[in-house]
Structures are given as structure tokens and as C-alpha cells.
Amino acid sequence: MAELKKQQSAAKAAAAQPKAASVKAAARRPKKPDNKPKVELTAERKRKCYMWYARLGQPNRAQMLQHVRNLKDKNVDITEDDVWALPWILGGSLLPVKEMNDLFMNG
User: Fold this and answer.
1) Rounded distance, CA 53 to CA 64, Å?
2) Among 12, 41, 49, 106, which lies 20 to 30 A Cα-Cα from 80?
3) Would the pTM count as exceeding 0.70?
């Protein structure tokens, strides 16, 4: 009986604590800085971004931003602003395949 009460009090204490999952989820969803103006991508810049998107294994926006940050000192020809300017769909989880195909097939 004492063991059950101890478990119940531990469960109540854990429920009162802020959840780490919500902090973790917030860390996965990057927020675009509001003070920067939106970058308009030229067809050539967009093509380079799509090529990096394919090279990196079609990551979501957060993963792609992380890759660009990690590769900043290397010879990478895209920036974080370019990644933000891409037409992400489904909350930043992927890029539209039709638009990529149109750009590569039709120029």
C-alpha cells in the first residue's frame, strides 16, 4: 500500500513538471527571424537549392537548415535565407516535387 502511494505521488510530481517533449518539439520547428526581409530566389538559385535538397536526401526544413549551418565553412552555394525562401509545404516537411520537375525539365 505504501509503495502504491509512493508511485502515485511520483506520478503527480511528474505531471506537475513541464514536459520536455514540448521543449524538444519547439526546438525542431525553427522560427524564421522576423527582422529579415524575404529573399526572392532566382531560377538559378532555386535550382541550386533543389539540387542540395536532393543531395542531402530530401530533408525537412529544420534538417536542411542544420545541414546548411554545418556546411557554412565548406564550399556551399546556398544560405539559410535561401532555404527559408523555398516553397515548403506541409509545415516545412517537404518541397513540391512538381515545381522541382518543371524547373529542371523546362528550365
Assistant:
1) 7
2) 106
3) no
The residue range of the domain holding 91 is 41-107
Phi-psi region of 90 (alpha: psi -120 to 50; beta: other; left: phi over 0): left
pLDDT tens by residue, 28-48 = 666 666 656 577 889 999 999
pLDDT value of residue 74: 84
Whether 7 is in a domain gets the answer no
Distance separating the N- and C-terminal Cα atoms of the chain = 73
Longest dimension (CA), the chain: 73
Q: Which cell numbers hold the place of 27? A: 526546438
- Contacts for 49 with CB less than 8 Å, ≥ 6 apart: 41, 78, 82, 83, 86
